[in-house]
UniProtKB/TrEMBL annotation:
Record family assignment: Belongs to the glycosyltransferase 92 family.
Domain of life: Eukaryota
PANTHER family: GH12965P, GLYCOSYLTRANSFERASE FAMILY 92 PROTEIN
The organism of origin for this protein: Adineta steineri
Keywords assigned: Glycosyltransferase, Membrane, Transferase, Transmembrane, Transmembrane helix
Protein name: Glycosyltransferase family 92 protein
Membrane disposition: Single-pass membrane protein
Entry-linked InterPro entries: Glyco_transf_92
């Protein structure tokens, strides 16, 4: 995989934790999640004491900072950096479709990710259990994927400043808030193309890092 390739080339850049409960003959209570809660708590135990924020996201989810913020870090530091809170609660906004004959040139450009092509989304954030959290490890005692945390209060960020952009389910399509069942954007190659973008970004970052070391 892309992650393993860079983990071998730049040791310590990424920690890869393999999950294989099949050898122990264990079965998750919710089969479709494959021990996600356990993975989240493992992350808290491993990295909680050295991290200001923790989060868990799927490959079909993107935390997107909105203007005037250019990065997630900028937004968090300015709005929550000094607050004693347990988490930031992000509600999913799912991509919706529209008449293909009305697509703009950018929306027809399949060389870009769906998140880059389409700006039309569900008019309302989905508030039926599909939220995710950015946690402050020092102030929480229990983590969950889509539920409230046990710890200090959670904050609701402004949807004008940050959003959780979410692709529809590719294998189990369902009606989302503001979207009809057949009004969805499908992009079955998103994982490979997103991985390529991550690969290019890491390569640029590492080249800059080693270039700076050479100058020093």
């Amino acid at each position: 995989t892309v992650i393993n390739m860079y983990n071998q080339k730049y040791h310590g850049l990424v920690d890869v934790v393999q999950w294989s409960f099949s050898t122990l003959r264990l079965v998750d209570f919710t089969r479709t999640r494959y021990f996600q809660v356990e993975a989240l708590h493992d992350c808290l135990i491993r990295y909680g004491d050295q991290s200001e924020w923790l989060g868990t996201l799927d490959l079909d989810e993107y935390v997107v900072p909105l203007p005037p913020y250019e990065t997630i870090v900028d937004y968090i530091h300015e709005n929550f950096g000094r607050l004693i809170i347990g988490s930031i609660n992000l509600w999913s906004q799912f991509f919706c479709n529209k008449n293909a004959s009305a697509y703009t040139a950018d929306e027809n450009d399949t060389n870009h990710l769906t998140i880059e092509r389409f700006t039309l989304r569900a008019p309302n954030r989905l508030k039926r259990g599909r939220q995710k959290y950015l946690y402050r490890p020092r102030f929480v005692q229990y983590l969950s994927i889509h539920r409230q945390v046990i710890g200090l209060s959670k904050e609701q960020p402004s949807e004008k400043h940050i959003m959780l952009a979410h692709y529809v389910f590719m294998t189990r399509l369902r009606a989302m808030s503001g979207c009809g069942l057949n009004e969805t954007v499908e992009d079955i190659s998103v994982r490979n193309r997103f991985a390529n973008k991550v690969k290019d970004a890491i390569e640029t970052l590492m080249n800059k890092h080693y270039s700076n070391r050479s100058i020093l």
